[in-house]
């Protein structure tokens, strides 16, 4: 009987312990917009403990949020959606930044004023197919103050 109670207590402790995030987010920010602007970029750094893939993003601030990459194609910089997501190697920070990988916010539902913040939900899938949702607040920064290096 004592063994049963000990097992029940251990099971309850495990069930009530919080699930630790496998992926962390830092320095989340979005470019400010001017009135009537319908798109902006979201930038941040992701670190996945065990590795995974950033597969989706969503925010009430935009109709669509897509994971994009920018790269040179000859003499032309091209942007394209990463339909299969962005790989996150285990333990290695992956930085989404201007002129490189980023999340494109399209169909903005509001003007993005400097100093404000927007909520974003990121979905990361691990190698076993388990999804993790990350709730992020992205601070709006001055678009003119951000320099892009190619």
Secondary structure: elements and pairs:
Blueprint: H1 2-16, E1 23-31, E2 39-48, E3 52-58, E4 62-73, E5 76-81, E6 86-88, E7 94-96, E8 102-108, E9 117-125, E10 131-141
Parallel strand pairs: 1-10
Antiparallel strand pairs: 1-2, 2-7, 2-8, 3-6, 3-9, 4-5, 4-8, 9-10
Shape: globular
Query: What fold name stands as the CATH topology?
Result: Immunoglobulin-like
Structural class: mainly beta
The CATH class is identified as Mainly Beta
Overall number of structural domains: 1
The description of the largest β-sheet is:
10 strands, mixed
Share of helical residues: 10-25%
Low-confidence spans: pLDDT under 50, at least 5 residues?
Answer: 3-18
Distance between the termini: 68 Å
Query: Order of helices and strands, N to C?
Result: HEEEEEEEEEE
| Tally of DSSP β-strands | 10
Integer average pLDDT: 86
**What's the gyration radius in Å?**
19 Å
Number of helices: 1
């Amino acid at each position: 009987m004592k063994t049963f109670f000990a097992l029940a207590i251990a099971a309850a402790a495990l069930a009530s312990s919080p699930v630790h995030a496998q992926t962390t987010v830092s320095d989340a920010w979005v470019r400010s917009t001017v009135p009537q602007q319908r798109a902006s970029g979201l930038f941040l750094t992701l670190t996945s403990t065990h590795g995974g893939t950033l597969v989706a993003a969503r925010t009430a601030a935009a109709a669509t949020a897509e994971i994009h990459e920018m790269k040179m194609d000859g003499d032309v910089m091209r942007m394209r959606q990463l339909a299969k997501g962005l790989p996150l190697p285990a333990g290695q920070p992956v930085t989404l930044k201007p002129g490189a990988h980023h999340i494109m916010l399209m169909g903005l539902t509001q003007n993005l004023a400097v100093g404000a913040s927007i909520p974003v939900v990121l979905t990361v899938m691990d190698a076993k197919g388990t999804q993790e949702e990350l709730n992020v607040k992205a601070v709006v920064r001055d678009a003119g103050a951000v320099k892009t290096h190619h």
